[in-house]
């Protein structure tokens, strides 16, 4: 028996989404589905045939509960005993797009395709974005 694969589409679609007042986790899961291409009928797990996603107003994303004060992000400098911890509120003040990027990154597969898929995610803190030439369409629900 032979397995057949669909042909990859030639042009990826560009989607735009306004993150204003949207819940962080639900938005990140929808973005990860589109980045992988799981919304298409021609989805193949080992191909990076997903679409581009442009996120505007990333600084206005909503979270439930006390996550702004309680949730912590950890990173390590590489030196002994140098674990750096940042709360979500501090992260939103410094780099508001990084919170959403880390949420999407955690929902993508932990293999070599993750970095390739994240290159198709374009996030901006405000309304303006430089991707008007790609003619992004509204995000699928």
Quick overview of this protein structure:
This protein is an alpha/beta fold and about 140 residues long. Helices cover about 30% and strands about 20% of the residues. It is globular.
Features:
about 140 residues; alpha/beta; 4-stranded parallel β-sheet; two-stranded antiparallel ribbon; 5 helices; 6 strands
Describe the structure.
By secondary structure, this protein is α/β, with parallel strands linked by helices. The N and C termini lie far apart (37 Å). The protein is built from 5 helices and 6 strands. The chain has helices spanning 24-36, 67-70, 88-94, 96-107, 113-118; strands at residues 14-18, 52-56, 72-76, 83-87, 121-123, 137-138. The model has no long low-confidence stretch (mean pLDDT 92).
- Provide the structure class: alpha/beta
Number of helices: 5
Radius of gyration, in Å, reads: 17 Å
Helix fraction bin: 25-40%
**Overall 3D geometry?**
globular
Major sheet strand order: 5-2-1-6
- Unreliable residue stretches: none
Main β-sheet description: 4 strands, parallel
Number of strands: 6
How much of the residues is beta strand, in percent?
Answer: 15-25%
- Give the topology string: H per helix, E per strand: EHEHEEHHHEE
Terminal-residue CA separation: 37 Å
Q: Name the average pLDDT.
A: 92
How would you summarize the topology of this molecule?
Layout: E1 14-18, H1 24-36, E2 52-56, H2 67-70, E3 72-76, E4 83-87, H3 88-94, H4 96-107, H5 113-118, E5 121-123, E6 137-138
Parallel strand pairs: 1-2, 1-6, 2-5
Antiparallel strand pairs: 3-4
Helix pairs in contact: 1-4, 3-4
